[in-house]
Design goal:
The chain is mainly alpha-helical. The protein contains 4 helices and no strands. It has one domain. It is globular and about 35 Å long.
């Protein structure tokens, strides 16, 4: 699966990625990282920026390395450049 830059399909990819992470980390952890991560964005941010912001938030929240690595893996497999 890759990001293809069609708004509705890209939104489905973003949502599916986060649901996979939600299933692994749980609602409370992902919701917290998403809320903090999204607060870092501007109206010019991309979904890839959002993925990086969520990872930054998870890091700031001191989530386990294995959880952060899993999040990066899911975003990477979905087409977001996580390097």
């Amino acid at each position: 699966m890759i990001v293809i830059h069609m708004q509705s399909i890209d939104s489905q990819i973003w949502s599916s990625s986060n649901m996979k992470i939600w299933e692994s980390l749980g609602k409370k952890k992902l919701d917290k990282a998403l809320m903090i991560g999204m607060s870092m964005l501007t109206s010019f941010s991309t979904q890839e920026d959002a993925a990086h912001a969520v990872i930054s938030a998870a890091t700031a929240l001191e989530y386990d390395k294995k959880d952060i690595d899993y999040m990066k893996e899911i975003y990477q497999r979905s087409g977001y450049d996580m390097i």
